[in-house]
Amino acid sequence: MSDFSLVYIKKLRENFRVRENGKKRDLSREKLENYVKLENKFFFFENFSDSEELSVDSNKYVQEKVLKEILDYSPRGNIEERIDKYILRLKKYPVSLQSVVQLFLGKNSTSEFIIEALKDGENIIPWEEYVCANLNQISDEKLDPIRIIDLNKTVQLVFKEDGLLKDIIKDYEYRHEQFMTTLEIVESIKEENGMIVEAGTGTGKSLAYLVPLAYYTLSNDKKAVISTKTKILQDQLLDKDVKILRKLPSLTQLRVSVIKGRESYFCLEKFFDFLDMVVDENPELLQSTDFLKILLWSMRTTAGDLDEINTSFKNFFKSNRYECKGMFCIYNKKCPYFVARENVKKSHVIITNHALLFSEAEMRMNDEMAEGKDEDNANEGILLPKFDVLVLDEAHEVENSLTEAMSFSFIPSENMKTIRELINKSFEIINKIKIKYHEDFIKNLKRTISDDYKNLFKTLKEITEKFNGVNFKGKDLNESEIESLLNELQSVESYLRNFKGISIQISGMLDDFMQEESEKYNQMFHDHRKVINMLDEQLKNVCGITAFSDVHITYFDRIQRDGKRYLIIMSSPVAHEKIMENIFPDVKTKIFISATMWVFSKGSDGFNYSRRILGLGEDFRAIKLGSSFDYRNQLKFYVVEDMIEYSHNNLEYLKEGAELIQNIIKIGKGGILTLFTSYRDMEYVKNVVHTENINLKVQERLLSQTKLIEEHINQKDSILFGNRTFWEGIDLPGEHLKILVIFKLPFERPDDPIIESRINHFGGKNFHEGLYKYYYPKMITNLRQGIGRLIRTKSDRGIVIILDNRVVDQNRNYSNKILRSMPPGIEAVSILKKNLLRTMKTLKKEGFI
């Protein structure tokens, strides 16, 4: 029991009454048992969702939902046990936190309860110092390599039928495919050769590569980098698989770290500056559980990763490259981003994501400073250290991630906005420090800035007027247009370099002035540097467009900003062969692994498409392993043969599809996911389907995918409509997904400049060859990813329904390619709509769905 005396309120019926339908009624016995009184000070309510209906002042009760929210903690037990647990949890925070609790929650029983709990705490550290005080920091101590007889034999001891995993993982089942995958990876590491691996869904590929990497790096004092598609998968590896890994013999000392982009990390300076500003100017803005939630999270987080916390207010405190002061920041030693970077240097295994990995590769290739590095440090990256093995998980997504990292974009209107802001801040500085310099020098400086501005404005205006008249998306440029554009962009580059040089000079002048006068201009200095950094990023993109014009496709589009459409110039790589040659060239062992790397191709091993999009040679080793699932008995695959044939903007297809989905929902009730390829189609079907008594959840453009999935899992008979991001990377096992509906085949738009250019690139003979070598395999890979959402465990069962009958249309030259690319055991059944619904009713009765 806590220091609080806990007494059930026996006479609540006399004190409180609930309003229901306009009348007062007594509280039920069941509700009474959910209330506890604490030292006659306040009432503690367990799950008080109808607080407004109680005839009691809300300031007189403690809201448990607030405690759960701010502590991110849901203890079990009866109400008295839970109160004890809340008190013990609160006592871990600094006693000094009492002084600020009411700033966030106001004066009420909930804040008083928290203050009472904090009073008896043992942590006397000032609360400001406790922010980010618990970050994991890997020791500088050098570890002695462990001794293993043979990597192959060691790994076999882990994965064999009666191996070590049996005693570590509850309900462990031996998987032959996992065993074979890990042996292939061991061979690749030992021989220092790269390889492509298709390891089917359910193989357990994460442990299959983690175990050999762990023993290899720890026994040889080496480093390995694992790259995943998403940050969610990074967290899953660390929170789930690495915990298993460390239970294996000799791996307790294994050092593993995660590194994400700077924007994922919490910025202490932004947080404290915000608190100072609000307390001084508008303290009522702090009256939110969200800010207290963030503060308490910052005191217990071990990574400072904002993905750990669920509140939109966290975006105020994201780190970013424009505002970061780096080593000059007073919080540098506790900065989560820089702590993560330091941890990476000391780790054996580093877990990153494709976006960061290829951004790192791009920086390494273009970093001008690299020319001055000695040979020993030539492979030291900006974010990643020198490493020996690279594993790319979800490797089918490497094409998109590589394209994004190696692409450049330039928005003339945005650049002018940045330049105006930079000029204003530069003139503000000049006016402050001009007393230190000769009058003629200041006049010449201002004149130079004004002249360059006029020339830049004229050039950008010419570019905008020349190319802004195009009225369709993604127009690529002909040779004469490209030549004209590149000439003008080279002029833009010259003016931007001038602005950058002058701005750095002005920044240095202010820095000297600050040292002599006072520190009151500190904010002015950093605001100016922030805009210089923004200009530097734009300059980098202009240079990229001009420098890579021979291997990139240059095109333009329009971008929506503040209700207006602005010209954007884009440059993206067409083929990855030349790029891949220069990406981490000294890393000999590169392993590309995914559940969808193989596409049927007559007369080949089925991996030629993967080799093409990854920029690998024709002789690059590849192996296809099966899945641990029994698809023949776990999955039924139906294609609706009497749907009207799909064509772009075909309203009849949308109508028929919406009607069929309505009927599927009536039978299935819940556990249904419908995958679309466009928001427009999804919106149409959502508006047509009758939603009475249907728990329908629809993916919105700005809504968190994770939050939507959580809502689907936590609610009975939920139905999901999802777009492109739902085709892969989501896990809905068991009853949460029994019926998967695919609205149409996931073809990319053939008139997209990048897609069209790659079709032409890979089709050396003609356009049709490019369709076979690139366009169709890309669609099939996406389709296989979508189908892979259904069966996630050996106990899952369900049906796939594809509305697009082109899958079984033998007149389509890609139909056979689709069907023969499916995993073994998945057989497509062509079926009429009425027979499909009849079959579904039977399967429902049998408990299959």
Task: Provide an overview of this structure.
The protein has about 850 residues and is α/β, with parallel strands linked by helices. It has 30 helices and 24 strands. The strands form five sheets. A seven-stranded parallel sheet has the order 9-10-8-11-16-7-17, with helices on both faces. Strands 20-21-19-22-23-18-24 form a seven-stranded parallel sheet, sandwiched between helices. β14 and β15 form a beta hairpin. The longest helix has about 40 residues, at about 480-515. The radius of gyration is 31 Å and the shape is globular.
Tally of alpha and pi helices: 30
Main structural class: alpha/beta
Anisotropy-based shape: globular
Q: How much of the polypeptide forms β-strand, as a percent range?
A: 5-15%
Q: What is the total tally of β strands?
A: 24
N- to C-terminal separation? 48 Å
Mean pLDDT: 87
The radius of gyration over CA amounts to 31 Å
Largest sheet: 7 strands, parallel
Spatial strand order of the main sheet: 9-10-8-11-16-7-17
For this entry, what is the oligomeric state of its chains? single chain
- Low-confidence segments, given as residue ranges, are 1-34, 46-56, 368-379, 470-474
How much helix, percentage-wise, in residues? 40-55%
